[in-house]
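User: We ran a pulldown and think these components assemble together. Before we commit to crystallization trials, I'd like a predicted model of the whole complex to look at. Sequences follow.
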Amino acid sequence: MSTLSQVAALAAEATDTAADDLKNANAATGAGFAYGLAAIGPGIGIGYLVGQAVQAMARQPESAGQVQTTMFLGIAFTEALALIGFVVFILLKFV
Amino acid sequence: MIFGAVEFPPIENVIEWPAFLFKDSDYFAFNKIGLIYGLGFLIPTVIFLLAARGDGLVPRGFRTVAEGIVEFIDTQIVQAAIGPDGRRYMPLLTSLFLFIFLGNITEVIPFFQMPGNARMAAPLVLALIVYATWISVGVKHNGIGYIKEVLVPPGVPKPLYILVTPIEFLSNFLIRPFSHAVRLFANMLAGHILLVTFSVLCIAVFSASALIVVEIGTFSGLLAFTAFEVGVSLIQAFVFTILTAVYIGMALHPSH
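Assistant: Here's a predicted model for the assembly, 351 residues in total across the polymer chains.
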């Protein structure tokens, strides 16, 4: 009887470890995808934004200051999505 | 695996610091983060108090520094985002900028090496202060109808208000303070983790003596990212402050 219960406890432990491993593996995969996918859009967006800003500054160097300020603002808004993706990554991976 | 020696420390070890004052208290603790916030309050105060001495006809010493900072905030942030009537908000914007910048720059200062703003506390409180400020500025200058003007923007076809009003409510009153805080917090946390990763890599490569050639690459990477993080600290302080100015400006002149 005691052997049986020991075996049952061991089996339960093994299932627990396996379930934990599965959960950790899924969390790691999900975290990687979360950040990777969240970075695509903002990457394209920031590239386009800065490219256009450089073009504007090259065409009108006298308005460079204003363009730069607006560019930083636009980057801040665009970047927020990638950063939220990064926070999701941290939450999935470490919490 | 030769790189098996690289072991990233658990996230708690990277961002949590033991308290060195009030260790046994349940409610108060003073650790490195608290020290950074204290310095972020103390250093600008001392600079501006020292700068306020004398008649200031010929600025020198601390006065040059203080005038440079104020000039920068005035031309780059206040005039660019609010306009001439935004000078009233200079004290708020200057103290926000300096507090955030000093909280960020500790990321690369030896013995601190932890950005104070990589903990959610300060960004969240600052974002809530800004949230309260722009709402009260809007209500003060445009009456209580300001809230209606934000929620029901004029010039939209009537049936579309079913869609527009909830979206405006979400984006202005819920997502705006959240993203304002998270932008600063996540940037600093990401930078901190980046620097930690490269430091851990450098140490691991250094202790595996066969790989000493790789150390050149990892160490120059660490140096480059440290320089990059100095820039990020400045830009994030600037972005937080200019977004504050933009929100206040939108509340002052809601028509555009």
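Chain A has two helices and no strands. That may be worth checking against your pulldown data before setting up trials.

User: Thanks, that helps.
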